[in-house]
Design brief:
Layout: E1 3-10, H1 13-25, E2 31-44, E3 47-61, H2 65-75, E4 83-87, H3 93-102
Antiparallel strand pairs: 1-3, 1-4, 2-3
Helix pairs in contact: 1-2
Length: 104
Amino acid sequence: MNELAIFITASSEGEAAKISRGLVEARLAGCVNIIKNVRSIYFWEGKVQDEPEILMIAKTRKDLFHELMKKVKELHSYTVPEIIALPIVEGSEEYLKWLRDVTG
């Protein structure tokens, strides 16, 4: 399988919508889910942070990852945005075909 699920966090629902729309319009992702009310606890600038965030899950092809990452960085307000790719190891063939057809 050459498809990926990409986790991306953002500071607000508006920012997540802007990034998601940018990825889909550029055909770098077939679909992006926006999940509200995520609480992130992480180490940043010498201390533990505890912040509300929005999680995006973008579905794309592996060969588009670097271009997708570049687009996220262009649209994102964070200095170091979370952009993590996980392989899709199994899935509905009809969905994966659709994903391949609508990306790129």
